[in-house]
Write a structure and sequence with these properties.
Layout: E1 2-8, H1 11-17, H2 21-28, E2 32-38, E3 51-52, E4 62-63, H3 65-78, H4 97-100, E5 103-114, H5 117-123, E6 128-132, H6 141-146, E7 150-153, H7 163-174, E8 202-203, E9 206-207, H8 217-231
Helix pairs in contact: 5-7
Length: 232
């Protein structure tokens, strides 16, 4: 089973999306596990403040390192079945080499590398992904330097937070996990998408391509490969 842990100020966004369709079934079958963590639960003080003004001045607020550090440390401890939590004076709890090879901590950032299908394939090889969603004007840089393994961006634009990137990454990675999709054949295997049609074969003057009605699977497959390449 692959596990996704999402650290966010809006866990309901994650829970609602993945509580539907194939992701709901996949979780019931224990193929994947998706859990959203409320960042404020790890913030101290009466108001559970997770942000503060940036040093040196500037607009907006910045997410603090302390609650993110505590959230990640809690997730690491809980992900180890049979291990008792321990306290360490500094840094995240040390991990064995075998643990680190199965886990990846990702921070969503406009400065991160652009997420691609190859990344989805690469990340699907891990057993555990921890996804950190930013908000406001950014996150304390020490999260990127000392906690996250890598930074990811989903495009050359700015969003209000990291929740949408988290949905995209989990969705794309999950599709690469055996048992998630109903059919083995996928768009990835055809190197892209191709036009699809359904009944009726003729609607007003618009017709379905004749090859799709022929029943010749070899020709149909060739047509789909040709069309997928033409779109790329």
């Amino acid at each position: 089973m692959m596990r996704f842990d999402v650290i966010t100020l809006f866990p309901e966004i994650i829970e609602r999306y993945f509580g539907l369709s194939i992701f709901k079934r996949a979780q019931k079958k224990k193929i994947i596990e998706i859990k959203a963590w409320q960042l404020r639960d790890f913030a101290g003080g009466r108001h559970r403040q997770v942000d503060d003004k940036p040093f040196g001045g500037g607009p907006g607020m910045v997410l603090k390192i302390e609650p993110i550090y505590k959230a990640v440390q809690t997730i690491l401890k809980k992900s180890e079945a049979g291990c008792q939590p321990r306290r360490y004076r500094s840094g995240l709890r040390p991990q064995r080499a075998s643990e680190k090879s199965k886990r990846r901590i990702i921070l969503f950032s406009t400065r991160g590398r652009l997420f691609t299908q190859k990344d989805a394939q690469r990340l699907s090889k891990y057993k555990h992904l921890i996804l950190i969603c930013g908000r406001y004007e950014g996150i304390d840089e020490r999260v990127a330097r000392y906690i996250a393994d890598e930074e990811i961006s989903i495009g050359d634009f700015v969003l209000s937070g990291g929740e949408i990137p988290a949905l995209i990454v989990i969705d794309a990675v999950s599709r690469k996990i055996p048992g998630i999709l109903g059919k083995k054949e996928s768009l990835e295997e055809l190197k892209g998408s191709y036009p699809v049609y359904t009944r009726p074969a003729v609607f007003t003057r618009w017709r379905v391509p004749r090859v799709l009605l022929s029943g010749n699977q070899r020709e149909i497959k060739q047509w789909r490969v040709k069309e997928s390449r033409a779109e790329s």
